[in-house]
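Lab notebook, page 48
Experiment: co-folding of the full assembly
Goal: obtain a model of how the components sit together before planning crosslinking
Operator: M.T.
Materials (sequences as entered):
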Amino acid sequence: GRAPRFHRKFTQLQDGGGVPSSSIRVMQWNILAQALGEGLDSFVQCPPEALSWSRRKYLILEEILTYRPHILCLQEVDHYYDTLQPVFAGLGYSSNFCPKPWSPCLDVEGNNGPDGCALFYDESRFEFLDSVNLQLSTMRIPTNQVAVVTMLRCRSSGRCVCVAVTHLKARSGWEWLRSAQGSDLLRHLQTLVQKHGHDSAGAQTLDIPLLICGDFNAIPTEEVYRRFAASPLGLDSAYKRLSEDGSTEPEYTTWKIRPTGECCATLDYIWYSRDTLRVDAVLDMPTEEQIGPNRLPSFSYPSDHLSLVCDFSFKEKE
Ligand code: NDP
Ligand code: CA
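Observation: model returned without errors.
Model output:
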């Protein structure tokens, strides 16, 4: 049985003001690794047929192509080389992929290789400047979590943007590790924007806008979230703009049922530089009723995490 897709609407923000044609659409999505969904996750209310790759791959592509983001940040990608990279290359996207060093997918029989983070961008909108794959460290010790950081130049405005995608350590008890991994990523980003923001004489010339997308595996009260919100990089979380007061995260970005119980939580974020970028629009979240009693994934939706989609524009320089 094929159930209908969620119908989600964009909330346009009053202070949007940006010319819609010039805005940059960004999507953040943990697509659920095929090996983990079938092999390790135990989504007990999800029919096994809904988890087959032959069904899920079309729902994943449909979800992304419904919104046609200019920048697409994905986690739990274990079908990069055989599906996502070639399909999106044919649609005009370039991409970078960083597999996890010891992906849990490799423990699943019949796996399709390690999962990792992937960053895609629309080549007609952006010129490639630089990209690095990072293994996040704590006290100089490398961990199993990674990030892709790509520096792009917007072809129409000539402005640069630094985009990062990451997937922090999962599960409770690891709050300290997520915090250390987040700090390590912030440190790398600080160094990168400093390097690219200087002219050949070494003078600071540019404030390079940042976009950091990720499954942080952390609720908004966790230390890693507080560190991002208080970072000297001047970051804000875009999805707060969906709330009535403009300062509350959504109620959930993931909703699933495992044998251990139901998990409904906000773990995924799009962080942006508040001084150089403006949020023009935010895609709303499906309601509890739309998601349905068996939660996610389902025949309607291929992942246990919902996609986050926002439109940004560059603020005028002051
Ligand atoms: P994480 O704890 O970060 O989780 C890995 C994945 O499991 C995530 O994608 C996460 O999804 C998902 N997950 C979270 N909670 C559950 C749950 N309750 N049940 C099922 N899946 C869940 O793992 P690590 O990256 O730290 O890797 C740990 C694994 O890596 C080990 O189990 C081992 O198999 C392997 N490993 C192997 C090593 C080696 O030397 N061979 C060394 C180290 C690790 P989400 O983010 O959506 O919650
Ligand atoms: Ca997962």
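Interpretation: The first strand starts at residue 10 and ends at 12.
Next step: discuss with group before ordering constructs.
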